[in-house]
Amino acid sequence: MNIKQFFLGVLTLSVMLFVGAQAKAAEPPVKDVKAAKGAVSTANTFNRLLKKDKERNAPPPDDGIHDPGNDGTHVLQPPLIAYDGLPTTEFGNYVDWVKSLNDGLLQPRYDRFDPTVEPLVMDLDIVREVKASMPDVVFPHKPHTQWLHCSNCHPKIFIPQRNANVINMSAILLGQKCGVCHGKVSFPITTKSCTKCHSKPKPADWKPPQSEASIKNPWR
Amino acid sequence: MFKSALLGLLSLMAVLMLPQAAQAEYADVVINNYADAAGMRPAVFPHWYHRIRFRCKVCHADLGFEFKAGGNKITMAKIIDGQFCGACHNGEISWSVENCGMCHSGVPGTPTQIHGSTVQRLVAPTYKSLDKK
């Protein structure tokens, strides 16, 4: 190591220290930051339409629907107390109701008076092929018949016959077919819940269906 | 004068700092078919509370509740007669109808709805001016 290298090292180190000090000095004092925060419009918050965690499962007096001026509102049970210990999901009530039932954490009655009545459970999966590239839909009768009776869905909402029901996402989102419950009470349609129904991957040789026009002229 | 101005300013600040757009529980049903007109608060039905105790079948198959908010035309006369809510809320399975405020607990003027439903979320919220509150 010669003297030239030593001087170069010292010079670099001092420059770095100087730049660091400058950067520190360039930061505005805390007082100014506070003032700047106050000036930003509250209309421009990040993810303003997403639910904030603290707004989930609000107790009745704070939930915006119940009237806090009503004495009865304060008697009602806050949902979070009831959900203690139940498995969670990312949508709806943020409770996995089906898992809670299967794990025995909930024992809802199937008969109004008699707690010993067992539901008529049917274990039959219905696969519905989806035309588009989404995975095919598997409809499991089992969790549905654990909660519901056949007559709830058949034949008014779903005709119990193969290929007799036209179902699409627009109808579901508007509250028809599956949307009679899903999106109102049972798990809702969000970008996080697609795969709960669309759960069967397409076969490896699957190709998107083509119209006659595109078969005739693939370059169209 | 100065005192009242300060009080006004403080209350304005309190109003501005309140949390915005509180979220009721998913699937809470507000039923306001007749309540507002009769001078009562609308009834709020918490689905979550009931599904912990009963399966869907009990109300929607046995008691004949339609799968539609406000689609059942429930009146107090029917409830006292043992129909709809009155099938359980009769002092035997659950508390009876004299606890008016436990159902009729909604903010007056709230329209009939299923809170947090997909249809409700798909419809864009109406624009609220920041000047008016």
Fold blueprint:
The complex is a heterodimer of chains A (220) and B (133).
Chain A: H1 3-26, H2 30-39, H3 79-82, H4 97-102, E1 125-128, E2 136-140, H5 141-147, H6 150-153, H7 169-173, H8 194-197, E3 198-200, H9 212-216
Antiparallel strand pairs in A: 1-2, 2-3
Chain B: H1 2-16, E1 28-31, E2 43-46, H2 47-53, H3 56-62, H4 76-80, H5 100-103, E3 113-114, H6 118-122
Antiparallel strand pairs in B: 1-2, 1-3
Overall structural class of chain B, as computed from helix and strand content, comes to mainly alpha
Instruction: State Rg of chain B.
Output: 19 Å
CATH topology of chain B: Cytochrome C3
- Oligomeric assembly: heterodimer
Shape of chain A: extended
- Which architecture name of chain B does CATH use? Alpha-Beta Complex
How would you state the average pLDDT of chain B, rounded? Answer: 83
Ends apart, CA distance between termini of chain A: 72 Å
Question: What sequence of helices (H) and strands (E) makes up the elements of chain B?
Answer: HEEHHHHEH
- How much strand content do the residues of chain B show? 5-15%
Q: Tell me, what's the shape of chain B?
A: globular
CATH topology of the domain at 88-200 in chain A: Cytochrome C3
Strand content of chain A: 5-15%
Strand order of the largest sheet of chain A: 1-2-3
